[in-house]
Amino acid sequence: MARVIVEVMLKPEILDPQGQAIARALPRLGFSGVSSVRQGKRFEVELDGPADAAALDEVRKMAETLLANTVIEDYAVRVEEQ
Amino acid sequence: MSAARVGVVTFPGTLDDQDAARAVRLVGAEAVPLWHADHDLKGVDAVFLPGGFSYGDYLRCGAISRFAPLMDELIPAAKAGLPVIGTCNGFQILCEAHLLPGALTRNASLHYVCRDQRLRVERVSTSWTNSFAEGQEITLPIKHGEGRYVASADTLAELEAGGQVILRYLGNPNGSLNDIAGISNAAGNVVGLMPHPEHAVEDLVGAPSTDGLGFFTSILKSLVNA
């Protein structure tokens, strides 16, 4: 059993109006010193077996096929230490 | 000649399939219901992907519909020249399926927009826009929260150079790059747009115009001439 984290973020050049709205809300709530916020998605993928190279390749394929739209999003895959 | 047969696809969460089918019938064609879970295009001459919230817009708009069994049939058929139009959620599905370049993202304003929208028809040499005049200004309803068209600078340049921008907003409602409301593939058989032609075909229901009819008469004309 292993848990693999896939993080999906809009590419830097793609406008993220949700992140901007959060950034604008923070000072109103008394939080200062934030220059920008970008919002993304986090997927926790539980594997039946170990997170070996083959399994990670498979997760990358999942990200490429379904979890991210690579036209507008980047993704990162990492194994979470249990 | 028998009536042209236009397939109208229903996914779970599709909303505008009945209006689309009605518009198809209004211009004298036969509307053929297509079900997302079937591996069957029923031999139709063209396909309409209507708007709505297929699969609840889970993950990304159109991201799950794009893998529906029907799409396994539709994607190769569209690549081989079958005329396909997607409006609103249908446009999002066509982009997710990579039948059209770019993507639709959250409106810049973060607000859902629902209004009558002025538009300019930019390209008339497609299966779905040949009834219009180039530069013609039309009014269609829009209703979407994720209609901001984005693509890489290279893709945008290609679309503009190749005349693949078919429809532009007059007064940009969502922050779409280059005011893009609709595009086609290079061949002109696959078209996607955020506005709703199927909601603007009859005066009786209070539509802002009947300008939407042009998309349906266009496909009939291109099928007769094919």
TrEMBL record, chain A:
Part of the FGAM synthase complex composed of 1 PurL, 1 PurQ and 2 PurS subunits. The gene is purS. One of its GO terms (cellular component) is cytoplasm. One of its GO terms (molecular function) is ATP binding. This is Phosphoribosylformylglycinamidine synthase subunit PurS. The keyword Flavoprotein does not apply. It catalyses: N(2)-formyl-N(1)-(5-phospho-beta-D-ribosyl)glycinamide + L-glutamine + ATP + H2O = 2-formamido-N(1)-(5-O-phospho-beta-D-ribosyl)acetamidine + L-glutamate + ADP + phosphate + H(+). Part of the phosphoribosylformylglycinamidine synthase complex involved in the purines biosynthetic pathway. Catalyzes the ATP-dependent conversion of formylglycinamide ribonucleotide (FGAR) and glutamine to yield formylglycinamidine ribonucleotide (FGAM) and glutamate. The FGAM synthase complex is composed of three subunits. PurQ produces an ammonia molecule by converting glutamine to glutamate. PurL transfers the ammonia molecule to FGAR to form FGAM in an ATP-dependent manner. Pathway: Purine metabolism; IMP biosynthesis via de novo pathway; 5-amino-1-(5-phospho-D-ribosyl)imidazole from N(2)-formyl-N(1)-(5-phospho-D-ribosyl)glycinamide: step 1/2. GO terms for biological process: 'de novo' IMP biosynthetic process. Its EC number is 6.3.5.3. InterPro entries: PurS, PurS-like_sf. Keywords: ATP-binding, Cytoplasm, Ligase, Nucleotide-binding, Purine biosynthesis.
From TrEMBL, chain B:
The keyword S-adenosyl-L-methionine does not apply. InterPro entries: Class_I_gatase-like, PRibForGlyAmidine_synth_PurQ. GO terms for molecular function: ATP binding; glutaminase activity; phosphoribosylformylglycinamidine synthase activity. Gene3D superfamilies: 3.40.50.880. It is found in: Cytoplasm. It comes from the Bacteria. GO terms for cellular component: cytoplasm. It catalyses: N(2)-formyl-N(1)-(5-phospho-beta-D-ribosyl)glycinamide + L-glutamine + ATP + H2O = 2-formamido-N(1)-(5-O-phospho-beta-D-ribosyl)acetamidine + L-glutamate + ADP + phosphate + H(+); L-glutamine + H2O = L-glutamate + NH4(+). Keywords: ATP-binding, Cytoplasm, Glutamine amidotransferase, Hydrolase, Ligase, Nucleotide-binding, Purine biosynthesis. The active site is at C88, H196, E198. Pfam families: GATase_5 (PF13507). Its EC number is 6.3.5.3, 3.5.1.2. NCBIfam families: FGAM_synth_I, PRK03619.1. Part of the phosphoribosylformylglycinamidine synthase complex involved in the purines biosynthetic pathway. Catalyzes the ATP-dependent conversion of formylglycinamide ribonucleotide (FGAR) and glutamine to yield formylglycinamidine ribonucleotide (FGAM) and glutamate. The FGAM synthase complex is composed of three subunits. PurQ produces an ammonia molecule by converting glutamine to glutamate. PurL transfers the ammonia molecule to FGAR to form FGAM in an ATP-dependent manner. Part of the FGAM synthase complex composed of 1 PurL, 1 PurQ and 2 PurS subunits. This is Phosphoribosylformylglycinamidine synthase subunit PurQ. It comes from Nonomuraea wenchangensis. The gene is purQ.
